[in-house]
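Quick one before lunch.
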Amino acid sequence: MPDTEPPRAPRLPRAALQIGGRFTEARDGATRDTLDPASGATVLTVPEAGAADVDAALSAARTAFDDGPWPRTPVQDRARLLERVADAIDAETEELAWLETLDTGKTLVESRADMDQIAQVFRYYAAEARTARGDVNPVPTDALSLTVHEPVGVVAMITPWNYPLLQASWKIAPALAAGCTFVIKPSELTPLTTLRIGEMLQEAGLPDGVANVVLGGGAAVGAPLTEDPRVDLISFTGGIVTGRRIARAAAENVARVALELGGKNPNLVLADADLDLASDQALNAVYYHAGQVCSAGSRLLVDRSVADALTERIVDRVGRIRIGFGWEEATELGPVISPEHLEKVQGYVALAQEEGATLVAGGGRPSDPRFAQGTFLEPTVLTGLPHDGRVAREEIFGPVLTIETFDGDAEGIRLASATRTGLAAGIFSRDAARAMRAARRLRFGTVWLNDFHPYFPEAPWGGFGESGIGRELGRTGLAEYQEEKHLYWNLDPEPVGWFGKRDDDA
Ligand code: TXE
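Model of the TXE complex:
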């Protein structure tokens, strides 16, 4: 066996659309190959949905919501189902991690961590469902005024290729906890684990039509999902260009919309930072999943007084990063998702140099012939990036770290804030109060102090400004899938007699 092939094949999901509880081919028989980005090899050929399949999936979700048992199933039973799914994910972690690694190229270590998080998300929303409460409102008359929560309805979920099952779980678990039904479309580049979770939901006893999976491209399959008046909520994670389109489509039907569109995430190293910690986390911030993370800390902002010392530590470690196939246990950096994406990332490396930055590490494709068929890029570092260029403002989404310097905390905060996509930021300082002062000034959905990347099912995730609308995870992540309803019951009703008075009425 050539050493570019994985030593074992994971159990593959059924190559089928899931519509109304049935697993089917596309009506017109169309298919698409899903590729391993590390080798370019086909992992599975899957059906490619057309308009008729999307229509059938939406009908199934609508009927399951309007007439099916799920929205009226007691929360305790919904919670039990989510727990069964979490147990099934735990039991199948290794298979799921392999699938995710073959589809995305990410390392097995990262895929295993994703699977652990995904099981936790299902458990967390099972617990939220059990404990969530409405309100009794203090109204001035003798009445009962109640706020109750009801499922928002049919949800169209559209997910990206960087965290296929993780992003799906952030939507599926709260949607099911709330009592919604859904149609999910994973990225056409990474359908495998979404296919499997569809099967697992059915195996766990979810009624037919509650979970529907359609596959295909953005224009042919994604867009019709977002334009259909049968959809009550569109939940999208992906790029900002698509996000804008989806917001426009949602406006037409006044559908609810939740958007997670990534960010340009600064990582600020103040003059008093622990440089061993800050350099270690700077690598973690940008090279996790080859930089293809919505919260990637690709923009390192360093106080000038420590910039040389920090850069030296970073470049030394970058030179030792092990590129490889995701399924090799020693691999630290896998490929990027596709040839088109590789070209885009390399374009930013070239642009940064045109803007005046200096390439101090990486920048090219690895020379080892084993990697010739894959979309690998060396871990790259650029210093001296100007603050006002495109590269300082735009999301690169690849293994590329840019370093800018500043003089004093106030300038660092000002530079870090110069973005409309405030998803996440990091601050490194030994002085907790100094770091917290800076953190309160930054307009980002998450600010990490002396760390980068941790997220938890219990804490909200989302961004300020153009980074998106709404929050996933946490309590707000459940509220996205609920409508609030006011129930009012007059306990001492008397006629008010405002209309149609007789002449002799007082
Ligand atoms: O995303 P798209 P792309 C960023 C990252 C990346 C850029 C573009 O900077 O370089 O976005 O990536 C579906 N109607 N992020 O082009 O196209 C598509 O099929 C409905 C950040 O790959 O937004 C896929 O399922 N759906 C991000 C999903 O949208 C449409 C993660 C995302 O793909 C559609 C990924 C349409 N008209 C990229 N067009 C993050 N927030 O983490 C496409 N899609």
